[in-house]
Amino acid sequence: MVVFGNVSAANLPYQSGFLESISSGGCELMGHSFRIPTSSQTIKTRTRRRSAGPLQVVCVDIPRPELEDTVNFLEAASLSASFRSAPRPAKPLKVVIAGAGLAGLSTAKYLADAGHKPLLLEARDVLGGKIAAWKDEDGDWYETGLHIFFGAYPNVQNLFGELGINDRLQWKEHSMIFAMPSKPGEFSRFDFPDVLPAPLNGIWAILRNNEMLTWPEKIKFAIGLLPAMVGGQAYVEAQDGLSVEEWMRKQGVPDRVTDEVFIAMSKALNFINPDELSMQCILIALNRFLQEKHGSKMAFLDGNPPERLCMPIVEHIRSLGGEVRLNSRIRKIELKNDGTVKNFLLTDGSTIEGDAYVFAAPVDILKLLLPDSWKEIPYFKKLEKLVGVPVINVHIWFDRKLKNTYDHLLFSRSNLLSVYADMSLTCKEYYDPNRSMLELVFAPAEEWISRSDADIIDATMKELEKLFPDEIAADQSKAKILKYHVVKTPRSVYKTIPNCEPCRPLQRSPIQGFYLAGDYTKQKYLASMEGAVLSGKFCSQSIVQDYELLAASGPRKLSEATVST
């Protein structure tokens, strides 16, 4: 999830100036900040919350849910174990991986588990790709996106367990909370009772909510969903050709259901509206949420992703003899006479050779770097339809502790905003008893990605005025902005529009020794952190299966590399 235009990377000229502005671990992020002097300002401490009304949400971190007995968790655990139990290679493969986002990190981790020697190259000076984050001069972190870890992320949950960092996830109560635009400052919630199994807990949550949908709308929506519940994954994949809006109308679901619920869900899942989003994306999420008791339960990471999640993966890779290098941007994929990869040429003029190569950067960057002789191969030509969607992540520090914020993810149901959270409540590292820091996903962002940060903040404040009518005014006559950061990602996850599924490539390419990893590659979790991790496992599995073929091609000299932290 959140973790999300239109300058088409496929049509941009191949030139060093442009390549210098993009990253092999994620699209270039244009992060900007602004500060309002506060030296003479007294920050007032607020410790008392507004008395709880019927829609007031008061949450605390709860114990980790029992995920280990679900079918998907066990399948993910079995795949992880297959790397550790694989026969040790007589001669480990030297695998060069471009991009240290979750897909690249996952690939390197599981290859190392299987006894091979990955070399992970990241273009920027920060790990994480789409989950990267930076620390400002005050020591405050600002991130690429607002990242939520669901119970329905079995490979991610296994990864945390394998690294021994389960305690770094801060689980929240099992609810989905939506703002009510018609009642500024109020919220409606879907509560999933722990005493009921799936799908009864989800059905109960929907039936108990009477603020957003009427009973006739609930019944029509439930009838519309029956084919998906009965047909399973095959039915879900067959709906790729329809947008959310088209599918809802075909199933006789009232438009108001789309307006009340699925605009917010579409923007949260892929940063676009229901008239563009493939219904397959929504059905995959709903299937997981309805079929797994804790599938829709959410957790926040307890701090910044590069240090709290990415570095443990790097340390694991290092402990098994793998290597990671930052500031290593790829300029060109150089080929041998037979069309296979000779080496990766970096922007500093050095070359990196290996027994196998993995491109784990976003699809837009891959398309820019594809060798000319590969572009007409159907496997690569189909990538033309996969295009990253722009997204903007906004962080605003206020001069006071806001009362109408909760320890949970909130769906804004705003025209300009997707989801948001008061990170001073939800995240231990960002905790602040005296002031709130709102992190907000600004989406759809296509029309805003080129606008100034000031314009984006002004528009955000106008939306926040509706969410916090008693506390925030667009002119800052109420809560004052202490500072803000705006992080723009011109090309984030691939835009999951109808008929994209046939264009998603398998991890093993038709070029011997060349593989792909990334959430855009073929796996059932689409554009998500779970999808990125699973793609890395599938990529590693393909390389392990191809060991004899790759080893027979002969050893290649691998440049020395150091780990940058």
From TrEMBL:
<comment type="subunit">
    <text>Homotetramer.</text>
</comment>
<dbReference type="GO" id="GO:0016120">
    <property type="term" value="P:carotene biosynthetic process"/>
</dbReference>
<dbReference type="InterPro" id="IPR050464">
    <property type="entry name" value="Zeta_carotene_desat/Oxidored"/>
</dbReference>
<keyword id="KW-0560">Oxidoreductase</keyword>
<feature type="domain" description="Amine oxidase">
    <location>
        <begin position="102"/>
        <end position="543"/>
    </location>
</feature>
<dbReference type="InterPro" id="IPR002937">
    <property type="entry name" value="Amino_oxidase"/>
</dbReference>
<dbReference type="GO" id="GO:0016020">
    <property type="term" value="C:membrane"/>
</dbReference>
<dbReference type="GO" id="GO:0009534">
    <property type="term" value="C:chloroplast thylakoid"/>
</dbReference>
<dbReference type="Pfam" id="PF01593">
    <property type="entry name" value="Amino_oxidase"/>
</dbReference>
<keyword id="KW-0150">Chloroplast</keyword>
<dbReference type="InterPro" id="IPR014102">
    <property type="entry name" value="Phytoene_desaturase"/>
</dbReference>
<protein>
    <recommendedName>
        <fullName>Phytoene dehydrogenase</fullName>
        <ecNumber>1.3.5.5</ecNumber>
    </recommendedName>
</protein>
<comment type="pathway">
    <text>Carotenoid biosynthesis; lycopene biosynthesis.</text>
</comment>
<keyword id="KW-0125">Carotenoid biosynthesis</keyword>
<dbReference type="GO" id="GO:0016117">
    <property type="term" value="P:carotenoid biosynthetic process"/>
</dbReference>
<dbReference type="GO" id="GO:0016166">
    <property type="term" value="F:phytoene dehydrogenase activity"/>
</dbReference>
<keyword id="KW-0934">Plastid</keyword>
<dbReference type="GO" id="GO:0009509">
    <property type="term" value="C:chromoplast"/>
</dbReference>
<keyword id="KW-0957">Chromoplast</keyword>
<comment type="similarity">
    <text>Belongs to the carotenoid/retinoid oxidoreductase family.</text>
</comment>
<dbReference type="InterPro" id="IPR036188">
    <property type="entry name" value="FAD/NAD-bd_sf"/>
</dbReference>
<keyword id="KW-0472">Membrane</keyword>
